[in-house]
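Researcher: Let's do a round of design. I'm pasting the structure tokens now; please hold your answer until I've finished.
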């Protein structure tokens, strides 16, 4: 059994309105992982962040969900901030990570059926956790990134991301071809480089209004030095991202983009089993929250989610990729309503 030490930047002592900024070791001090609702706890909600985020992604949801009476746990996932980042990329495969999440839950919420939430790669992990370990879940939700069959079917064989970009299946995943390249790790390992990466990712533009991150090309390394400051988040929050992620550089986050083939191999087994039962369907109650302005996720990617979920609720917010911190009130209202109806 692999042992991964999880930490969290925000999970403890959340009270309505304010998050604690203490780092908590979620792996070995389970007693301190809880947000502490003053109301009696209705259950546990586990929140999985995406790239290039960390537990801080959920800074507006932890207090809100706590105020509803839930205990909330938001770990830094593998490769981020204080959580482990081993050298072997296979640790990042979504099946392996699903096992880590199950172990974490065995420690911090034994025997409980929890509510799981995920954004971006955290959504990808949430789907696979729901596929491999449905017995842990009461319900789950994801933001921004819809479910896609991670492979196109056992009969079709393996298709590399490059092929699926070039033949028009997933044109906006072209940036992943750059990000899976190990050259990215070297280019974004120092604090100054990490700062430039986050400035581009969070919307910094040149004097002419040109950004340095595109779904079709990835990062334009050459114009990074000419970007003005990002305006997506307050400067204090921006410094928190730069400081936390600089501890390890971008390698740990980018490794999430390097497991597609491993995931496909792991999931073949699941695929054959599911197809024998009539197809790809999740029976756990599920909410998808569309981010309408997310240029990485055009509507065709989520046009027909009903085919995969027995109990689908679909909502939508007028936000870009990071809806949970771009439009926290709207996202919280959607989550609160859905949770209230479970
Ligand atoms: C962080 O933890 C220390 C020691 O437990 C405590 O004194 C401090 O108030 C905490 N800070 C926050 C922001 O919760
Ligand atoms: C406790 O829950 C009630 C609703 O049941 C809510 O109105 C109240 O704000 C909650 N209290 C706190 C301290 O969160
Ligand atoms: C996907 O893989 C199958 C089987 O190897 C192959 O026949 C097909 O051409 C591939 N599709 C693309 C877009 O490369
Ligand atoms: C691209 O290739 C995949 C895998 O072979 C196939 O399922 C899909 O229909 C193709 N799409 C287009 C637009 O050709
Ligand atoms: C990495 O750095 C090299 C040398 O500065 C540069 O040519 C290349 O474009 C960079 N790549 C990325 C993805 O930033
Ligand atoms: C941009 O941010 C840096 C800190 O990261 C700050 O020192 C600088 O003054 C900012 N520039 C502008 C034009 O706001």
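Researcher: That's everything. Go ahead.
Model: Designed sequence:
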């Amino acid at each position: 059994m692999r042992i991964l030490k999880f930490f969290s930047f925000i999970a403890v002592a959340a009270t309505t309105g304010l998050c604690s900024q203490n780092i908590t070791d979620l792996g070995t001090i389970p007693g301190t992982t809880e947000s502490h609702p003053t109301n009696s706890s209705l259950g546990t909600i586990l929140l999985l962040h995406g790239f290039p985020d960390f537990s801080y992604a959920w800074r507006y949801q932890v207090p809100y969900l706590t105020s509803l009476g839930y205990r909330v746990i938001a770990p830094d996932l593998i490769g981020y901030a204080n959580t482990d980042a081993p050298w072997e990329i296979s640790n990042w495969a979504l099946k392996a990570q699903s096992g880590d999440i199950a172990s974490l839950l065995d420690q911090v919420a034994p025997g409980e059926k929890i509510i799981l939430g995920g954004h971006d790669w955290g959504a990808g992990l949430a789907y696979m956790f729901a596929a491999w370990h449905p017995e842990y879940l009461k319900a789950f939700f994801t933001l921004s990134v819809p479910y896609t069959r991670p492979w196109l079917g056992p009969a079709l064989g393996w298709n590399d991301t490059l092929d699926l970009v070039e033949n028009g299946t997933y044109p906006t995943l072209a940036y992943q071809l750059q990000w899976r390249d190990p050259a990215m790790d070297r280019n974004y390992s120092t604090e100054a480089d990490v700062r430039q990466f986050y400035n581009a990712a969070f919307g910094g533009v040149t004097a002419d209004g040109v950004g340095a991150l595109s779904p079709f090309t990835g990062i334009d390394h050459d114009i990074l030095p000419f970007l003005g400051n990002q305006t997506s988040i307050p400067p204090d929050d921006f410094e928190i991202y730069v400081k936390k992620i600089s501890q390890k550089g971008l390698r740990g986050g980018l490794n999430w983009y390097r497991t597609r083939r491993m995931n496909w191999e792991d999931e073949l087994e699941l695929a054959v089993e599911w197809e024998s039962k009539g197809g790809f369907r999740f029976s756990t109650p599920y909410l998808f929250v569309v981010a309408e302005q997310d240029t990485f996720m055009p509507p065709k990617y989520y046009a027909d989610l009903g085919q995969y979920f027995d109990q689908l609720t679909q909502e939508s917010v007028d936000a870009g990729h990071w809806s949970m911190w771009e439009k926290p009130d709207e996202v919280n209202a959607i989550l609160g309503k859905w949770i209230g109806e479970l």
